[in-house]
Amino acid sequence: MVETQIVARGISDKKVIDAMLKIPREKFIEKKFYSQAYNDHPLPISEGQTISQPFIVALMTELLNLTGDEKVLEIGTGSGYQTAILAEITKEVYSVERHSTLFNKAKKILDEFGYKNIFLFNLDGTEGLKEYSPFDRIIVTAASDKIPKPLVEQLKESGRLLIPIGDRFSQELLVADKINGKLEIKNYGGVTFVPLIGKYGVTE
User: Fold this and answer.
1) What is the tens place of the pLDDT at every residue in 121-162?
2) Alpha-carbon distance 156 to 71, whole Å?
3) Which domain covers residue 102, as residue numbers?
4) Which of 32, 37, 53, 140 would be a feasible disulfide site paired with 26, CB 3.0-4.6 Å?
5) What is the dihedral of CA 130, 136, 140, 141, to 10 degrees?
6) Would you call 148 exposed, middle or buried from its count of C-beta atoms within 10 A (0-12, 13-18, 19+)?
């Protein structure tokens, strides 16, 4: 998987590659999908959500430009796979999941791995985690039609935010750097994510 889907497609950050090599993806999916665990496509998990394809996980992690000392906010814990990858690389990961079922499953799996730098919350992720802000990096693993205002406010100056923006059928991965209080945005092309539901996300 790492050689053919990730390195071959341009991912070069050694920290990201090492994390992808270390974390067993099958631990985060249902047993009936074990044979597809390392295939180059997303897989369904419960609550109508998905675990992203390995390349997208690697790409988004690399685009965060992590040095290892950052406090990262993840919106959409989902299966917990992206959370684990982040925890391997950076100082602290604060991850928010609105679905109780997914939250409990991810917490159980991540606890089994023994991570001490992951902090999980069963809340509306579009509101962020104001009491723990500011964050050096914010990664959103669901698509919205706009960047939620609370996330911009909770992003540290010189920090970076990643989010898929678009509708249910066409989305683009945006990387936003906060410079002098304003976002400087770059577009990294088409992606497909489930909708970001919540007070500051898209409407159901």
Assistant:
1) 999 999 999 999 999 999 999 999 999 999 999 999 999 999
2) 10
3) 2-191
4) 37
5) -130
6) buried
* Residues tagged active-site: 52
Residue type, 201: G
**For the chain, what is the radius of gyration of the CA atoms?**
15
Specify if 22 maps to a domain.
yes
What are the C-alpha distances in Å from 117 to residues 32, 97, 98, 108, 120? Answer: 30, 17, 20, 15, 10
For residue 191, give the amino acid letter: V
Q: Is residue 8 part of a domain?
A: yes
In the chain, the number of structural domains is 1
Three-state secondary structure call for residue 112: helix
DSSP code per residue over 35-93: GGTTSSS-EE-STT-EEPPHHHHHHHHHHT---S--EEEEE--TTSHHHHHHHHHSSEE
Contact, 126 vs 100, CB < 8 A? no
Cα(183)–Cα(34) distance, integer angstroms = 40
Residue 35 — very low, low, confident or very high, per pLDDT cuts 50/70/90?
confident
The structure's pTM equals: 0.94
